[in-house]
Amino acid sequence: MRLESLDRDDPHGAHAELGDLAAQLEGDGFDVEIAALDAPIRARLQKSAGSVVIDVLQVVLDESERHLIDAVIGAVTSWAVHRRFFAGSNQATPQLVVWVERDIVQPVALPTNKFDILLRVTGIDQAALSRLLERINQSLPDDDVVVLQRVGTVPDMPTLYSGSARIMSAGREEAVRRLCATFELAGMALIRREAAPGGGVPFLHFEAAGAA
After folding, report:
1. Number of other residues whose CB lies within 10 A of the CB of residue 112
2. Are residues 33 and 2 in contact, defined by beta-carbon separation less than 8 angstroms?
3. For residue 98, what are the CA distances in angstroms to 8, 17, 71, 82?
4. Helix H segments across 61-192?
5. Which range (48-57, 68-77, 80-89, 162-171) has the least confidence?
6. Is residue 51 a contact partner of residue 93, using CB atoms and an 8 Å limit?
7. 3-class SS at 69?
8. Number of folded domains in the chain?
């Protein structure tokens, strides 16, 4: 079989990640090759949620391998739970597309994981909060979102904002890491992390870097 990447957001990263999938498939006894980045690939534009699907992992089988379709789909979707790339963009659904020779025989939506994270932000005013939210949500992938609202003010205490984020990621810790990195690039520092009441959901408190 041949693995081909149609991930347009980070083609080099996605191509490198195919090495992990190839190793897993070879461990299961499959004969695998990975198409070079500049190799001609099979492509047929499809539509998803009103957008062109551009984050596609393709598996091309020979006619003699047709009987492997179900096994390949099972192996790839199992691997895809922990992937970093082929994640979809512009609200498109990331897909696995299986070809046999020149025909698409089965497109399959790749699984996605979304993690909720509770947030608290201090050390900025309302105008700065609006700019922060705009900057963060513009820098996050389309399926990720951060929402914050003012809770209130206490005399001699910083204005408090609370909210949540929903981040698509291979795992919860990766989602937290990505969100923290995004806040840090926006000039915010993580000053506390704990579990929300009831456990499970991370609770992060950010403050403007340099705030008293």
Report:
1. 16
2. yes
3. 19, 18, 11, 20
4. 69-80, 126-139, 172-185
5. 48-57
6. no
7. helix
8. 2
% residues pLDDT > 90 (the chain)? 39
Q: Are residues 81 and 131 in the same domain?
A: no
- Same domain? For 102 and 118 the reply is no
Q: Do both 28 and 96 map to the same domain?
A: yes
Given the structure tokens 């490198």, which residue do they identify? 16
Q: Among the residues of 97-159, which ranges form H helices?
A: 126-139
Contact criterion met (CB below 8 Å) for 57 and 5: yes
Q: b/e per residue, 133-144, with b = 16+ CB within 10 A?
A: beebeeebbebb
What is the Cα–Cα distance from 172 to 48, expressed in whole angstroms? Answer: 26
Q: Which amino acid would we find at residue 56?
A: V
The position carrying tokens 């809770």 is 151
pTM: 0.56
Domain span including residue 137: 114-208
- Do 141 and 75 share a domain, yes or no? no
Segment 90-132, tens digit of pLDDT: 556 788 999 998 888 888 888 777 788 999 999 888 889 999 9
Count, residues in the chain: 212
Strands 202-208 and 114-122, sheet pairing: parallel
- CATH number, domain of 180, equals 3.30.70
CA distance 15 to 159: 45
Q: Judge whether 142 and 90 are in contact, CB under 8 Å.
A: yes
Q: How many CA atoms lie within 13 A of 168 on its CB side?
A: 21
Q: Which residues contact 149 (CB under 8 A, 6 or more apart)?
A: 161, 162, 163
